[in-house]
Structure formats: structure tokens, C-alpha cells
Design a protein that fits this description.
11 helices; 2 domains; Rossmann fold; homotetramer; 7-stranded mixed beta sheet; globular; Dihydrodipicolinate Reductase, domain 2; alpha/beta
Chain lengths: 337, 337, 337, 337
């Protein structure tokens, strides 16, 4: 059994990771850490775990946790995550990092968007991006994997085949995304207060959201092409799910069938990317690790629709998919539910 | 024009009160107070007021506010509310108090449920309860009105005619209420955090909710009968609305028609209480000052269903209805929307 | 008192219109029609009207209804609406038509998007579009007004000043809209079945929605410029509200302040269009006739955010605003709530 | 591998059953039937199954389906379900029936609540009720199991230990239940139309809901005591979950600790019934086969709170738990997610 430790386990992505791992036949959860709730049973915080996981939160003491784990899944915020990631790497553990600390292509961009401090800046740009559909071979060898951001997952899966083949103008890309509220985390704030965000939709972080450079960087890394996407996230009144509607200008006239064919060929063998003819809804993929994708041509413009469960394929499911890759297990283990 | 000042105007009940008063032909809002946001435009806090109310929050300085108002609506929390209420009363202003400070029949019960401190304990038990359907004449004369609690409004309107006529065992009453989340206020807390309470229903405050003694006291005050109700509130995933399902044992066999008739006769002339044959839904009364009521007999037991908008008939609409009473205006002014 | 008749009064837009008119001091509702519910009290269908409107549905018999009304508001579907509109016009009544029958600039486009049949094709292209912010003077004189579509209202109000001033490339426009479910009407269908659309967001009608030509036509009519917008509506899990995020390429570099200034100058004197600095949410305008608008510049591209209540400013409130214009009343009457 | 056929597989309970069985290591789904969609791929109806289950719907032709299955799960409506159940039993197949056809204790009661027709009336009253917590041994031997109703599951699990021990007055029981909308099925109807039931709560079927006699009968069958419960279901604006708040009068004074202890002792060894100290929420058990239970004493009365996922422990999960029992598999297989 692979022994897993989860850092920062009070949040929603940690909870979802735990639920997936509880049905994983090759994994056992041996440590869950939380600074604020150390010493408390995890089921006191996550009541859905009553009777299902009998562990207490502990501090993230590296020697203690390292001694009882084979792999660390870090759900800590950026900055803190890299700090612990490099400590556990030094202790010989493999690490999957949910934060943005190791996702971007260079430290300068990280600093411009996340602030000057990075406790492990040297590794930035050298860590594999944990999207097996694009970087599977590297993930298999990796000791450290940067788990993708939720919005970039939808955008990159949709755009990568078109950018790679040079079919669209890489400066014309617009990503208009809609997310459920769980993406905002478990800490109460006014904009996630039920009577504020229920029955309402709003744009946020227009031009300033940190996932904007991530989309550009990973598409560049995978395709070699400079991409400059406009990214607009919206908060929708639902727990989970992301739907991204993506606009790009074809460099030459493209039919709808041709557009769908680009996707179909790219993902024919991928277990978790399903190219569909109909317009997908986030509910079709809720509580699963699937991404549903389709394409349309409107007045000559390419319109892509891409949706995932932000907590699963956008975070926890992706992490378990990466874990399966890293440990030579069938990639779909515990994820075909 | 009646000049109105609203204390504690950052919350949802204040906002609803303002929206109602903005369409009131005899009223002008001249002061809105907030300790935390003093000096800020109210529309910066309540964005739905952009272009509709051009006032800044101010401190609740009694001489200043009193000088420009005829009546004070206090949306302050209990304790603080009585403190300001008696100051404005002393300054010659009429006051409608949204808090529980003056609702109960005696100070001892107040202390048992709300804590020892009451800044104006002498008035407790002598203030009219602002339910015009039961206490209209007293409200008309009053300088101080205790605006009812939201849950008690549903329970008291449904039960009062039956208890008054001695038709049900007053010890058999069970009030099972379901409320929207706005009843919990505007301050972010984990249990009102969207991903926690969305798609979920739960009971809370079972046996400990402060509206339980209020139901007993006001029914006693109106009917002379000691009532001991069991009250169980539930949090439902919606913005607004309360539906109470109320169970009581008839002292003699009662038909459904007879039960409906008790309600119909009691409220025949009431503009805001509508007795209906069908089972009402909170949506039928959302954003209105109406209460919809019906009765059923199941296996000999009386089952009453009563619903209101918790922010309107359960708070702000009731306050404006009281204001209309107090100032000799048509009771439905600004409330027939 | 202006006597109003409402055709097709079983739907949501009719209900909202009634609620607004119930607080209108110069209007009385004298007829409500419904083929399917003729003879039934309207409150049996719309339970929120219990005790508020004591009228029975009747058939839309033109002489009968014309005899007791001064103005007709038609909430009938396209085709049927024009049929009755021209009959009531012939009977000397003024008409506000909620359908798309008279909105477009020419009959050919109507036929291409709505089908060959139009019972009053000659008037198409000659009827004023009921957006007072753009066409107020014509509305004042009109006997027949084409009430705008909900999505076009958000898009046209945001784009008109920029297109009029030649500031953006009219071929670059993308309108990505998100609407609540009430926009789909009151007839039960699988895609509006609660467990299907709750907790889910999806795109629909991509490239095929009938509001796409309406956006192009009205912008052309107002500005003289040919516009070709891509329009993508999305269904969001909420009752009401539309938020449109609109992308356009400036013909010359534009700052964010300049963009906001374009909107501020265009709508400085408009009571119902509020230009805001913050990113607005549909909740800010829910249950009101307001449109909140803002502008951003992202990577040189103009991003506009525009939101309304689809049932009010997107339908019923707009109709009452038009009615106020047509009858020389203050335009905000009954709408400042 | 156990070969499973699912009858009436277009609905929500069938879909949930399929999702559970897809992760069941000992089961393979070999047939899914639907009269209306026969010949179509199941993923065309249930889009969440794209790429996960490659089967076409077929007619429920007994010889054909029997030849390729070991056990039949019938999600057909009552009446139709018994008709097919007895045919598959005659063909030597084991059957789990989701309908109410075999749940009650006698045919007369069935006829009074469900109508005169029962295609297999002789078996009524002789079929084991599929609640393993109460009837595990009989389920293990059974060829036919009556899968429980969703509301009765919450009520019976909570009440059974108290009634069995004679601790409460069996005539005093009130079950006030709140359910999500998926309980109403997948066929569009006005009361499940999103804009009707969203943001609203209502009681329905007061005194007339068919689960009322089921609660009485099964408690009688398990405890030998005649129970007469008042049952009031409510529709809450959420996809899934049932929370029942249950009131009963203790025959002798009971402390809260004693009440909790009754539950703890009854369910100490049950994998899926968790007795908790806190007040549970439906979200704690959503998407799981767990029931969370607690007890309170309020003014001497016993108040029980019981919650489940109506589609899982209230239908599909219960069925798989029964299947595991019937086939001698670990009862929690595929259900510990």
C-alpha cells in the first residue's frame, strides 16, 4: 500500500482527495495535517467523514510525517506549499503540489503575479505540469508534480490541439469561464456568504486573475507558441463545476466537423477527456474526473466549450491521476466513478 | 413627509426596509447609521442602492440623528438596540425596535435566554408587540413598538385563533420551521458559507432557539392561555422565506373545513393574511408582506402551514406596517407590491 | 386611470408586469387573457396574486377586450402576438409587444430566424424598438412599441456608445451572456427541470440563438454601422438575472478610464442605467429596472460587463417604462423600487 | 461476475445505481431497459455516462434479458414493477424491486393507497423489506427484496429502537421530512420546474403521502407494536437529500444521553448508520450510503433528526447493499465512497 500524507487537510480539495483515496485499492491515508485543527479528529471538521476516516489532524512536522508516508499531497496555499514541498523532497518523499508554486515557466512571472517571496525559486520552470494528457511521460518519472489550476485545465485541454497545429491565431484567444463557489475555498468571506452569491452571477478578477499567465505559459510549454489569452472568470451560484467558453480566430476557414475532428483525434485514447457533439453541462461531469469538450464555428470564429468538476479534474482527481502515473498504477484507479 | 432614521443599516433587514421606504409616498429616509461604515456612501455597502439612495452612513449620535428624524427604526442587535431606543425615546422620537429587547413578557425570561444585561429592563413586558393583526389598537398609540421575530410571526398568526378559542391543547404544540439563509444576517460565518449550506438542509438550535419563548409569551399575552410549544428551526438552501408546519392536538374532534373556517373568520378583514385552500409555498409570498396560511386534519391532529418572507413580513415589511399604523396612514401604504 | 389589458397572462413576464402595475398610481389592470385558463381566477395560476388581483382570465376577444382597455401589453409568443397586435391597433388601441415580431430591421431576417409566417409583415422594420435610452422620442409618439429582447438589452446598452463613436471594430464583438432559468418560460421542459439545471451551467443555442440578429440590427439602426456580433447564451442555476460579458477590439488604444468615461457620458441622465466602477453582479439589479454597466481594458481589449433582471429591465419593467413614455407620465413611475 | 439488469433505466435512481455498480468489483451491468428509449445508447439520455457505459437501452423482453443476467433491479413504477418482477422470478432470476409493490404488510392497504390493481397481490406481505439494519438475515436468503421508500428509511431507522423497547408512545409520532427535488423523478412537471421550486419550500401530500402507511407497517413488522405516525413531506430547493425531524412522546421521562444511548447501542455495528452528537445536515451524507442520526430532548419530548441521500441510502445504495447481502458479498462493497 502506498502511504499518503495530505498537508493542509481542512479545505475542500483535501476533503475531495480523501474521499477518492478512501476507495483507492492501493493507497492508505496515514497523515493529515492542519495547523489550526491539530489534535482534533478530522471528522469533527469534515462531518462527511464520520465513520469513514479515523485520523486526527497533526502538525506538518517533516520528520514525523515523512516517516509514515511515501507521497505527500500538499493542499497548502502558495508560498507555504513550496516551503514544505522542498522539505519533503529533501526527506526523499515524492510530492504533488496543488498550489501554483511550481506551475509557471519562470520565476519572474511568478513574482509579478504572486509576490516576491518564493521559498524554492530555483525549481520554478523545471517542474512537470501535472496534466497527464499533455505531459504523461514526464509525470511518470517525476518526484515533484505541479498539479494544474482548475481554470487552466479547461482552457488548456480545449486549446492545446488547435495551438499545437497552428490552426488558430494565438493572440485572439478569449477564455470566458464560469465556476462554482467551492473554488473560493472554505474560509468564510462576504463574497462567498450564501445570501450574497446565491441567485447571482458576477465576473471577478477581470484582467487580474492569476490563472491567466498559467494558461499562456503551459500552452507555450506544450506547443512552443507564444499565446496571449484574455481570461475572465465568473462566479456562478452552484457548489462545483467549471464551464469555459473559449473563442479563437482560425488562421484559415475551418468547418465545425474539422474543429471537432481536431479534438477527437487529440483525445481518442484519453480515458478522462470525452469529446461530445452536444453542448455539455457542468452537471454531466460533476463528482467525476472527466472533461467534456465540444467545438462550434460561429460566423467563422471557433467556439470551444470545456467543462470539468473544479474539485475533481480541476484539483483532487487530477492529483490522484498524477499519483497513479507516478507509481506505475493504472491511471484510472479510483477515478472511474 | 415623515423623516425616518435607520440604525444599524448595514444588514439585510435595513436594506429591505430602505427598499420599501423608497417607494413610500409619505416617508423620506434622512439618516442611516453604521459604526463600521460611518462616512461611507450606503451604496458602497449595498450596491443595489446605486443611484437610488444618496446618503452616507453616520454614527448613531443621538442629538444629531434625532434632529433630523421623526421616527427611528433600529436594526441593531439586542442589548445595543434597547440602549439607543431609550435614548431616542427620551429625545421625543418614536421607535420601532427590530431586536428582541422588548418582545418578551418579563425581564427574567429575557435574561434566561439573552443574558443578564438589559439597558432598559423596566420597559420589558410593557411594550406593544408589533403584530397589527393582534395588537393594532395599541400600536396606533405607541411610541415604542417591538417588531416581531420572524419565526414567531408565522407561528403566532397560525395558532392565535385556535388557542384563543380553546380549540387545541396548548401543551401539544410543535412548530417545525424552515427558513432561508438571509435570516442568519450579513456577517460571514462557516454555517452560512455558500458551499456549506447550499444543497443542504439541517436543523439548528433544537430546544435552544430564542424564538421559542417568544412564541409562548405572545400567545399567552393575546389569549391568556399558557402555551408550551416545541420549536425546531431548520436552515434551507434559499435566500428568503419561512415556512412553518405546526402540529397541535384538538381538544375535540375537528374537521378540516372547521379548521379552515377558524382561520378564515379570524383574518377575513386582514389585508396581509391570506387563508388559502392549497398548500402554500414560500415563493408565493417572497418579496411581499403577505402571510399565506392553511389548515389540514391528519389522523385527527391539526396541521397548520404558515409562510412569509422572513425579511418582509418577518421584519422590514412588518416594521413599515407598524409605522403606517403609528402615523395614522393606510396600513398597506408601500406594501401592496 | 389608464386601463391596461395583458395578453397571454399565464407566463412569468405577465406576472411581473402585473406586480409592477399593481403599484402604479395611474394604471388599472382591466383584462388578462389566457386561452388555456380562460374563466379561471388569475390567482389560481399565479398564487402570489392571492388577495392582490381579483380578475378572471378571459379569451382575447378583440372587441370585448378593446372596449375596456386603453393599452394592450402582449406577452403572446411570436406570430400570435403580431396577429393580435394589429387587431388591437385597428381597434384604436396602443400596443406594447413583448414578442420578437416587430423588433428586427427587415422581414427577410425575421423569416430566416423565426420562420416564414408573419401575420403583419408590412410593419416589420418600421416599429420603434422600445429601449427609451436610445429611442425615447419615437416611443413617446408610438402606437406600437416592440419591447426589446432580454439579452439584446444588456448588449446594446453596453455597446451602443462605443459603436456610435466608432471606437471599436464592429466585427470583433463577442457577447457571452449568462441568464437565469425564468428566461425559458413557465412551460415544464427537461432542460428546465430542477434536477437537470440546478447546480449546473451550460451554453445553449451557440450560433443559433434568435437574439443574435437582434443585437446586430438594433446597433445598426442606432449607429448606422454594420455590426456582426458572436452571441453565446448560457443557462445559470438561478431564477433571474442576465450578466453579459462583452469583448470588442478598440480601433485605437483605449485606457480603462476612457472606456468608463464613454459609458458615463452616454448615460449620465438616464435613471435606469448606472455606470459603476466595481464589477456588478446580477443580484445588484434583481427585482429592479436597473442596468449596471462597467468597462475594463485587458491586454488592450475592451471588456464590458452589463447586467439586468431579465424579467424586469429585460421585459416587464421595460414595458412599463415604455408605457410611461407613451402616456406622457414620469418615466420612472412604479419602477423606482 | 454477477450480471445485473436494470429495468426502467431512464430515471435518476437507475442512473445512481449504474454509477455505483460501475465501481463494484464483482458486478457487471449487462442490460438496461427503457420502453421509450429502446435502441438508443444510454449515454444519449444520461450524458454523465459518456465514455463510462457503452450499452443501448432495450425493451424489457423477459427471456432476452433473463438470459444475460443473474439479478434484476427494477426501477419501474408500481404496478409495472410487480408485473416484471414476478416474470423474472419465474425465470429463475433474483429481483430487487425499487417500487412500493411489495413493501406493505397487506394487500388491502396497498389497494387503499395505490389503487386496486396489483399484478402479484399474493406475495404482498410476504416479501422481505430491504433494510439490512433490521432484516439482514432474511435478505440474505431472499430471491425478491422490496427496496425501501426514501422517507420511511429515515423514519424507521430513527424510530425502530425506541418503539421496539417500548420507550415512546406509538400514537404520538410525527415525522416532518424535507426532501430534495430528485425524489420527484425525471419527468418534467410544473411543481418541479426550476423557477417554480427554486428558492421555495413547501409542504405537499399532507396526510395523503403513500409513505405514511409504509412507516406504520414496517415499524409494526419489526417491533410488533401498532404505530400511527403523522407524516408531512416538504419539497426543499436542492437536488438530493432527506432530513426528517421526528417527534415522539416518551412514556417515561428520558434524558438526552439516554436517548442517544438507545441509538448508539442499536447501531454500534452498523457500517452505514452513524449516530452523531451534533445536528447533522443532508450535505454530510450527500452522495453516500450513510444515515446520520441524532436525538434531543426538548421540554420532555423526544426529537430525532435523521438524514440520508434520498437517491443513495434512500434508493440505489440501499439496493446495492441488498444485492451484496443477497450474494454473500461484503455489505459495504462499492458503497464506502
Amino acid at each position: 500500500m502506498i502511504r499518503v500524507g495530505i498537508l493542509g487537510a481542512t479545505g475542500y480539495t483535501a476533503l475531495e482527495t480523501i474521499k477518492i483515496l478512501l476507495r483507492h485499492p492501493e493507497v492508505t491515508i496515514t497523515a493529515v495535517t492542519s495547523r489550526q485543527d491539530a489534535g482534533q479528529p478530522i471528522a469533527a471538521t469534515h462531518r462527511s467523514l464520520v465513520g469513514r476516516l479515523d485520523l486526527d489532524f497533526e502538525e506538518s512536522d517533516v520528520p514525523t510525517v515523512a516517516a509514515k508516508t511515501d507521497v505527500i499531497l500538499s493542499c497548502l496555499p502558495h508560498g507555504a506549499s513550496a516551503e514544505f514541498a522542498c522539505a519533503y523532497l529533501a526527506a526523499g518523499k515524492r510530492v504533488i503540489d496543488f498550489s501554483a508554486d511550481y506551475r509557471l515557466n519562470d520565476l519572474d512571472t511568478f513574482r509579478a503575479w504572486y509576490g516576491d517571496h518564493h521559498p524554492d525559486g530555483e525549481r520554478v520552470g523545471k517542474v512537470v505540469y501535472g496534466l497527464p494528457e499533455l505531459f504523461r511521460d514526464s509525470i511518470r518519472q517525476a518526484d515533484l508534480v505541479a498539479n494544474p489550476g482548475c481554470f487552466p485545465t479547461t482552457a488548456i485541454l480545449a486549446l492545446a490541439p488547435f495551438v499545437k497545429a497552428g490552426l488558430v491565431d494565438p493572440q485572439s484567444v478569449i477564455v470566458d469561464s464560469k465556476t462554482g463557489v467551492s473554488g473560493g475555498g472554505r474560509t468564510p468571506k462576504l463574497n462567498f456568504h450564501y445570501p450574497e452569491c446565491n441567485e447571482s452571477i458576477s465576473a471577478y478578477g477581470v484582467g487580474t486573475h492569476r490563472h491567466m499567465p498559467e494558461i499562456d505559459h503551459i500552452l507555450k510549454r506544450y506547443t512552443g507558441t507564444e499565446v496571449s489569452a484574455i481570461f475572465t472568470p465568473h462566479l456562478a451560484p452552484m457548489d462545483r463545476g467549471i464551464l469555459s467558453t473559449i473563442y479563437a480566430t482560425p488562421v484559415e476557414p475551418m468547418t465545425q466537423d474539422a474543429a471537432l475532428d481536431v479534438l477527437l483525434r487529440a483525445y481518442a485514447d484519453e480515458p478522462f477527456v470525452q469529446v461530445v457533439d452536444h453542448l455539455p453541462a457542468t452537471k454531466d461531469v460533476a463528482h467525476t474526473n472527466y472533461c467534456h469538450l465540444t467545438a462550434r464555428i460561429v460566423k467563422g470564429r471557433l467556439v470551444l466549450v470545456s467543462c470539468i468538476d473544479n474539485l475533481i479534474k480541476g484539483a483532487s482527481g487530477a492529483a490522484v491521476q498524477n499519483l497513479n502515473c507516478m507509481f506505475g498504477l493504472p491511471e484510472t484507479l479510483a477515478l472511474r466513478n
